[in-house]
């Protein structure tokens, strides 16, 4: 039997009511940003684990080397 898909750890689903509130807030912020000449960009919501891990290790090593 197929296993039911699960959402990734640290993420969550939003109900339609929550999405309406979130969209209102994001649309308001977006309109203000556009008013002042800002342009939208899109960045990945999730990264490859090896990329994230390598960056985290580098930051930790540089932190410890400073002290």
The SS-based structural class is mainly alpha
Give the helices and strands as they follow along the chain.
HH
- Give the percentage of residues in beta strands: under 5%
Radius of gyration: 19 Å
How many beta strands in the DSSP annotation? 0
Tertiary shape:
flat
End-to-end Cα distance, whole Å, is 53 Å
**Count of discrete alpha- or pi-helical segments spanning 4 or more residues:** 2
The overall pLDDT average reads: 82
Largest sheet, described in full? none
Helix proportion of residues, in percent?
55-70%
Low-confidence stretches: none
Task: Give a structural overview.
With 67 residues, the protein is an all-alpha fold. It has a domain at 14-39. It contains 2 helices and no strands. It has helices at residues 16-35, 49-66. It is flat and about 45 Å long. The mean pLDDT is 82. This is Histidyl-tRNA synthetase.
What labels would you give this structure?
mainly alpha; 57% helix; aminoacyl-tRNA ligase activity; aa-tRNA-synth_II/BPL/LPL
In short:
This protein is mainly alpha-helical. The protein has helices at 16-35, 49-66. The protein has a domain at 14-39.
Topology of helices and strands:
Blueprint (H helix, E strand, L loop, with lengths): L15 H20 L13 H18 L1
InterPro entries: aa-tRNA-synth_II/BPL/LPL
GO molecular function: aminoacyl-tRNA ligase activity
Keywords: Aminoacyl-tRNA synthetase, Ligase
């Amino acid at each position: 039997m197929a296993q039911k898909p699960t959402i990734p750890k640290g993420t969550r689903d939003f109900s339609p009511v929550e999405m309406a509130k979130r969209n209102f807030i994001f649309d308001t912020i977006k309109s203000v940003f556009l008013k002042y000449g800002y342009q939208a960009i899109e960045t990945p919501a999730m990264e490859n684990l090896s990329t994230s891990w390598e960056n985290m290790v580098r930051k930790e090593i540089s932190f410890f080397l400073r002290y």
